[in-house]
Amino acid sequence: MTEVSQISDAEWDVWRSFTAMRRQLDLALEHQLQKDAGISRPDFEILLAIFEAPEKQLRARELVDRLGWEKSRVSHQVTRMEKRDLVTRRECDSDLRSSWILLTPSGKRAVLGSMRDHATTIRKYFFDALTPAELELVSTASRRVLDAIDPPACTRLAEDEDADEPTAAKA
To answer: What confidence tens digit (pLDDT) does each residue in 124-138 have?
Structure first.
């Protein structure tokens, strides 16, 4: 493979190991969220973002920016969560093109109920599996990779979406 890709076999092994670890960790965390709180990882990410917001509410665009998701993905996920009474939308008085997304009491219970178990699972599968020196290496490597992606991929995605919007929609 090295003749075509300019990546050595050893580098491919590192990449495959990293992507397998990331997928398995995501699946383990997802499974635990489903088991402990009956919510998905996307549910949890939205609930947590709103819960951590100063007023416990976010405009849809702010949610897109915080999560780094496409607008349509956020919209569809919020719609599914509304049907399950985890969030609700309210018109934004200062910007009629936007709406606020707020936690319902059920959504607040779901996020609060899942936070401790989620943290415990992260500790078990990530922090406890690595030594302090390995954690420092992961942290350093993560920052270096993030710095190499400039601007961050989610920022570029949002900018690309904005460029695709009709001018009237941006006004």
So the answer is: 999 999 999 999 999
**How far, in Å, CA of 157 to CA of 64, rounded?**
10
Q: Taking a C-beta distance cutoff of 8 angstroms, is the pair 107, 101 a contact? A: no
Does an H or E element contain 168, and which?
Answer: helix 167-170
Contact between residue 126 and residue 139 where contact means Cβ atoms under 8 Å apart: no
Per-state percent for the chain, helix, strand, coil, to nearest 5: 70, 10, 20
| Interatomic CA distance for residues 107 and 159, integer angstroms | 30
Domain 2-129, CATH class in plain words: mainly alpha
35-59 pLDDT per residue, tens: 988 999 999 999 999 999 988 899 9
pLDDT (mean) for 87-101: 81
Specify the domain boundaries for CATH 1.10.10.10 within the chain: 2-129
Q: What is the pTM of this model?
A: 0.76
Query: Which strands form 99-103's sheet, in the order they lie side by side?
Result: 57-59, 99-103, 87-91
